[in-house]
Design brief:
- Residues 1-21 form the signal peptide.
- Helices cover 35% and strands 23% of the residues.
- It has helices at 10-16, 39-52, 65-73, 86-94, 143-155, 168-176, 187-192, 223-234, 236-244; strands spanning 28-35, 56-63, 80-82, 98-108, 110-114, 135-138, 163-165, 182-186, 198-200, 210-217.
- It is an alpha/beta fold.
- Strand 1 (28-35), helix 2 (39-52) and strand 2 (56-63) form a beta-alpha-beta unit.
- The protein has 9 helices and 10 strands.
Length: 250
């Protein structure tokens, strides 16, 4: 996968425009399929991108990366795909739904989300196996679930979750609503949740860091606009929004 450094700065590209709409000309919609963990950061980028591209509306489909690959493979139309891991991007490439080479734009790692104040006194990954604790995780095919499995393998600690969710936001919501005592989510999700959950970091998370790739979808209805969105994400404004919630650089 190519690194983002070779790409032109986002600001210059935004000035060049998408060649479609200024002064009230035709409107256009960019459809972005993105991992659920990108909800807040991509949402923040939407306003700035639309402002720089008058007449453009960015629409998102946030879900687990594996679900998004399945949707595209079944014919769902999209312009951009942003995955929470390289495994699911590779599946999209193999399925023939990606145009060109994906670019890495961020990294992410797991943390333990618990209720505010940490009433169960969880202090470590191994502490998630204590009796009577309701733990939720992502399903194995979802990037956050795959990362959880890697931590289990690296630590020798096998969790017994009460449920396996299809994306990381579902895990977060179960903890925030009190339906679970603890859940494995990304650092960025815990940060975005603010005071709805508390975060328990654990060092073993560093052994299962996910790389996030982004790419234009094959036969995208708005190919040029899709490339400009990707350049925006890879540019300085995009990096700043990603860093706000804790994403790392690739």
């Amino acid at each position: 996968m190519k690194k983002p450094g070779a790409l032109v700065a986002a600001a210059a590209l935004l000035i060049s425009g998408c060649g479609s709409s200024s002064g009230g000309s035709e409107s256009q919609t960019l459809t972005v399929f993105a991992a659920a963990s990108l909800t807040e950061s991509f949402g923040a980028m939407k306003t700035a991108f639309e402002s720089a591209h008058p007449g453009t509306e960015v629409k998102f489909n946030f879900a687990g990366s594996s679900s998004l690959v399945q949707q595209m493979s079944n014919g769902a139309k999209a312009d951009v795909f942003a995955s929470a891991d390289e495994t699911n991007m590779d599946k999209a490439v193999q399925a023939g739904v990606i145009d060109g080479s994906p670019s890495l734009f961020a990294t992410n790692k797991l943390t333990i989300a618990v209720a505010p104040g940490n009433p169960k006194g969880i202090t470590s990954f191994a502490g998630l196996v204590q009796d009577g604790l309701n733990v939720v995780v992502c399903a194995p095919q979802v990037p956050c679930g795959s990362a959880t499995e890697k931590v289990e393998q690296n630590t020798g600690v096998t969790l017994e979750p009460v449920s396996e969710e299809q994306d990381v936001k579902q895990v977060l919501n179960k903890v925030a609503s009190g339906d679970a005592d603890a859940g494995l989510v990304y650092v960025t999700d815990a940060t975005s949740a603010a005071d709805k959950v508390a975060e328990v970091d654990f060092p073993e998370a560093a052994t299962a860091i996910n790389n996030y790739p982004i790419a234009v979808v094959k036969d995208a209805p708005r190919t040029d606009l899709a490339k400009q969105w990707i350049e925006f994400v890879l540019g300085e404004q995009g990096k700043a929004e990603l860093q706000k919630v804790g994403f790392g650089a690739p």
